[in-house]
Specification:
mainly alpha
Length: 119
């Protein structure tokens, strides 16, 4: 038996009968767990870029409506559209990260159930 199995069995002994296996984290807890672990710095950078691109998108949107020349409207509108697409991409990527954390949590639950049945 390796070290991981010992840790899992110790966690099973310390928990009350299956309550840790039933508890589902809410959206806020899943959001916080996305900023923990080995990919936390990439998620933090993604959030900073999303906020920065949101500011650029709002700024270019205001300039789009204030522009009087069609060429300027196209440039500011294109920049605004690009920032909105980038923010959408970052949100989809972030939700996929949260989903992978959810899948890993479910795999760990299955492992715990299999080990508890072996005892």
């Amino acid at each position: 038996m390796n070290d991981l199995d010992k840790k899992i069995q110790a966690a099973l002994r310390g928990s009350t009968e299956g309550t840790t296996l039933i508890d589902e984290p809410n959206l806020a807890e899943e959001l916080v767990t996305a900023f923990r672990g080995r990919n936390s710095w990439t998620n933090l950078i993604a959030v900073f870029f999303s906020v920065g691109f949101l500011a650029v998108g709002i700024w270019s949107g205001f300039l789009f409506f204030g522009a009087e020349i069609v060429r300027e409207q196209l440039l500011w509108g294109g920049l605004c559209l690009f920032t909105l697409i980038f923010i959408s991409f970052m949100k989809v990527w972030f939700w996929m990260e949260m989903h992978s954390n959810r899948v890993l949590r479910e795999i760990k639950r299955v492992e715990l159930l299999l080990i508890s049945r072996e005892r």
